């Protein structure tokens, strides 16, 4: 059995990474905090042109008909670039839940979708969305909430919520993949800064304790990676363990990203909290995505139930 991604899957990820280097620089992520149009701006258009927004939309509706295994590496690159906007909700969840003309509009890059369900109780970027997917009946009014990540606008809605089912598992894996990408960016940034910052007349990157901290992050990320890839495989092949594997991926990636964020902040010191560095944008995204599409408590409970069953 071949345990490796295909050349096409790797090429898609490399193309996404190259595209986002130009279309989504840190300056754009920073500007997205105050300019709503950026969440549907250049980076969104670039991903739509690549076909990623319609990657899981059936070919009959103008999409690519890709599987989670085909796109998981691309989602890692989206996380690494900290791309703003309701991408998971639009490109992953909506094609599974929305009917009519919506899949075709999503594939063409002409629609953004926000989703509220039991696993994801807040509507992300509802102010720039064309469609709000609410499992409960009716269309309740929206109330904007304060978000820990200013590039992600959150809204609440009245009424009961229902589970999004399998679509929530697909979303959890895509978010987990983004957390891996964020972790790698944070680790690389911390390593680079450790090679520049000096204390006691020495570059801090030479301190043994700091080397151990950064090594622990690298190990945590590398151990979480196959868990996320396995979950994408399980969803692709509709395995009985797909739900459990998706939860395991979300937990593993969330823990790895948390450690990467904490270590990067320790390496940078107090300046890491300030607006002076782009680091805070990536830290905020990690904190937001750890809770998005199920926090670790929810997914640990699902894993426990699956194992005990």
From TrEMBL:
Residues 165-307 form the Acyl-CoA dehydrogenase/oxidase C-terminal domain. Its cofactor is FAD. Residues 6-98 form the Acyl-CoA dehydrogenase/oxidase N-terminal domain. Signal peptide: none annotated. Keywords: FAD, Flavoprotein, Oxidoreductase. It comes from the Bacteria. SUPFAM superfamilies: Acyl-CoA dehydrogenase C-terminal domain-like, Acyl-CoA dehydrogenase NM domain-like. PANTHER family: ACYL-COA DEHYDROGENASE (PTHR43884), ACYL-COA DEHYDROGENASE FADE28 (PTHR43884:SF20). Belongs to the acyl-CoA dehydrogenase family. This is Acyl-CoA dehydrogenase.
